[in-house]
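# step 3/5: fold
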Amino acid sequence: MGGYRSAVPLSRATSEALAARGVAVEPDFDLSTRAWWRVGGPADGFATVSSLDELVAVQEVAAAHDLPVFVLGNGSNLLVSDAGVRGLVLVLGGALAECEVLDDDARELRVGAGFKLTVLVSRSHRHGWTGLEVFAGIPGTLGGAIRMNAGAGLGETVEALVDAEVVLRGGEVRTFTVDELRMSYRTCHLPEGSIVARARLKTRGGDPDAFRERVKTFLERRKATQPLKFPSCGSTFRNPPGDYAGRLIEAAGLKGYTLGQAQVAEKHANFVLNLGGATASDLRRVIEHMQRTVHEQFGVELEREVHYAGDWSGWQP
């Protein structure tokens, strides 16, 4: 949900400045407990903000102290370095993780960037809101979905988004329309260092029973075709134009390829698994081996969906 700016550590003075603005920082937080791969070193500091005012305070202090801020959503598409993350790792909670109906017909919702998409889809089922099935099968939060225009087979985030309220580096709050964000496949043009706070989503008319059945069928199919026994980040690579990353990886003979305790899944080649005890470095080496092999055999550059987070300066390929 947020971008890593630099390798500047979190100083005591910065922690005190944040505390003075009502943001409590927990030092040396173990990020492997939050990342889906269950790997990664500690964050210099970890904090949860529960309101727009607190988020503005973080961005103001960050700009004044040259503090790198990384916003952690659900941790589902991150590979956190074994060395950890310098600076502050931020989670959005409280009012920034709530869902509000904006009109009686529920044609529009205001949803916090920290709101989990699985809960949003479940709530859609209960209330008969259609149009939000684009979030089915995405194990993240709304802010992360906006940042990467996430989609899992029933559409993309751009199809449900009206606008996004964003806090810029320095603390300015701005609202960007969906057109201003220029969203395309797994891409959204947000200002560097900005953090999505909340967004307006649109629902549409339609048969809610048909919506529920469509989502149910889609999720059952995903469950049957994806490896769920071991930790992974979901799809590792974007699909290249006119093809599928999983097909190319399988055709390259990489299913089951293992390095240490990191493995290309036998069940779905676009998944990389932590078999137990893998390091972040193991997982990255497998990922980059997949990229090299597919390029050598087919001339296709696979683009990662997973994001490398933290301090990789000492990493050895």
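# step 4/5: annotate
Residues 99-211 form a domain with the Uridine Diphospho-n-acetylenolpyruvylglucosamine Reductase; domain 3 fold (CATH 3.30.465.10).
# step 5/5: archive (pending)
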